[in-house]
């Protein structure tokens, strides 16, 4: 079959826009032949696009279009010109009677993946055929929610006077210490993919005061769980002339906005996923690390002071308080070098974590803003200040007190969309085992 050229043909409507009230009007639809049924003098094609599906009916009297429709494969790329017609025999009460069909591209058969979800596929099969998987209505719903999360966050940050920045993805040294870095070939120098925009976003408080960044970070951690990826989308803020308590207001505000917008603007996506979400009340519950340890002790969970809590423990905390919980005042040994310590107790940090439904969604704190203390903290973590010299020097030229946090966008999408694995929230996930497609 010779393929048709799109030429000047353009779609006039998305599939979901075709409604009974448009009876008798002309329409041009473009998409994929999701399902095809031949029934005597009729051919029924379910045309699917990013918005949803619409039934297209071919009558034998439109001979050329009818003959072409009989030869279609599932997932062929097609354009349809026809008339909208009310119908009591379709799920949506409407169909398009095809007058012309243009085959813009053919699809191989059989398909490696069942797009209609009549036969469920395991996650590996889905990810191996990811582009086909992303045509599934449930997959589309997940990414509509993810898109809304990013759109709502940017709007909220801008309303709060934050400037969007884009910091380097290739760095010369660890931004948070440790060795969980991916080395890259950078001419004749040693370089790494960043594990965080941390050091650069802090510097920007000395320029723009209130900043945010949404971008990729890379973690070379050997974690193979439903919550971990090697390439992560992270949402960061940093506020100059502020403490951690100021950042809690932004944290609660942006999450409340995100949940509200998804609930209001992505109702169809939530319905497709069978997901009902509860908009978190603000301000979030706040407890100290000591109070968290004491609570767990009363539940029969023994945690040594200075030890981290497990996901199970964090679920117990959020279940008990029936919503998001900010745990703050962690021991200094548990937090990175750039977190400041309390003036009244140098063993306690101004660091915090936010837990939602037992998942750590955000981490942040008040930062060190004096060069001498910065160097002291690096040494306390057995890090070499010389490796951070290009950062430290700017702390000698008027670095303001500042604080900030980061949110894992993938995990937040996972919670809101109600999917079981964080890989479902990323177009092409990268983890311990997967580097393609």
* Helix coverage percent: 25-40%
* DSSP helical segment count: 12
CATH topology group of the largest domain:
BirA Bifunctional Protein, domain 2
Uncertain runs are none
**Quick one: overall form?**
elongated
Sheet having the most strands = 8 strands, mixed
- Gyration radius over CA: 27 Å
Q: Main sheet: which strands, in order across? A: 6-10-11-18-17-16-13-12
Annotation keywords:
elongated, 8-stranded mixed sheet, OB fold (Dihydrolipoamide Acetyltransferase, E2P), BirA Bifunctional Protein, domain 2, alpha+beta, 437 residues
The gist of it:
This protein folds into two domains: about 15-105, OB fold (Dihydrolipoamide Acetyltransferase, E2P); about 135-425, BirA Bifunctional Protein, domain 2 (2-Layer Sandwich). About 25% of the residues lie in helices and about 30% in strands.
Q: Could you characterize the architecture of this molecule?
A:
The chain has 2 domains: about 15-105, OB fold (Dihydrolipoamide Acetyltransferase, E2P) (Beta Barrel), CATH 2.40.50.140; about 135-425, 2-Layer Sandwich (BirA Bifunctional Protein, domain 2), CATH 3.30.930.10. It has about 425 residues and is α+β, with helices and mostly antiparallel strands. The strands form 4 sheets. It has an 8-stranded mixed β-sheet with strand order 6-10-11-18-17-16-13-12, with helices on both faces. The protein has helices at about 65-70, 125-130, 130-135, 135-160, 200-205, 245-265, 265-270, 290-300, 310-320, 370-380, 390, 410-415, and strands at about 25-40, 40-50, 50-60, 75-85, 95-105, 165, 170, 180-185, 190-195, 210-220, 230-240, 285-290, 325-330, 340, 345-350, 350-355, 360-365, 400-410. The model has no long low-confidence stretch (mean pLDDT about 95). The chain is elongated.
